[in-house]
Amino acid sequence: MTPRHLVLLRHAKAESPTGAADRDRPLSARGQTDAQAAGGWLATRHVPDLVLCSPAKRTRQTWHAVSTRLPAGAGPEVRYERRLYLAGPDDLLAMVREIDDGVHNVLVIGHNPALSELAFLLDPTGGLDSDGLRTCGLTVHAVPGAWPECGPRLAPVITTHTARGS
Fold it and tell me: Which CATH class is domain 4-14+25-162?
């Protein structure tokens, strides 16, 4: 069986403009640079086949910046999932279990605390940083079986990275 990887990416650093709804918060300049660095990191390690992205402005902008650094022709399927915006870890896991069998590398771009909680839930050792994912932080989980079989303590973290641009 071809290995499956689940990559969790917390959105990059966002601004908090006065009067803007949370859902409409844009990335900061640093966030844009960090998201591009995340794309460069992914390009040499785990190019996604499928991207599940929250529809919030900062997550969409994170994805667009990441995508600029992926190899030409990578062209993953991108789904902007409303459920991701306010999802808890169980909701995220349910979405992962719905992924088609032909997909091998999945990138989920969302929000804390749910992404950090999912990372802790999936890893059998629980050896992640207790502060959780920082902005533009990634965890890569190895999923040993089919997506519907993914569950608590069954998808170990194989690497982590916090992307920072220069």
Answer: alpha beta
Choose among 86, 111, 104: nearest CA to 50: 104
Signed CA dihedral, 109, 112, 117, 120: sign only: positive
Is the Cβ–Cβ distance between 39 and 71 less than 8 Å? no
- DSSP one-letter string for 84-146: GTS--HHHHHHHHHTS-TT--EEEEEE-TTHHHHHHHHH-SS--S-TT-PPTTEEEEEEE-S-
Q: Residue 26: is it exposed, middle or buried by C-beta count within 10 angstroms (0-12/13-18/19+)?
A: middle
Coil/strand/helix, residue 13: coil
Residue-level pLDDT at 1: 64
pLDDT over 90, % of the chain: 89
- pTM for this model (two decimals): 0.96
Q: Which amino acid is at 158?
A: I
Domain residue extents for the chain: 4-14+25-162
Q: Give 131 or 80, the one with higher predicted confidence.
A: 80
Instruction: Give one word for 136, left, alpha or beta, with left for phi > 0 and alpha for psi -120 to 50.
Output: left
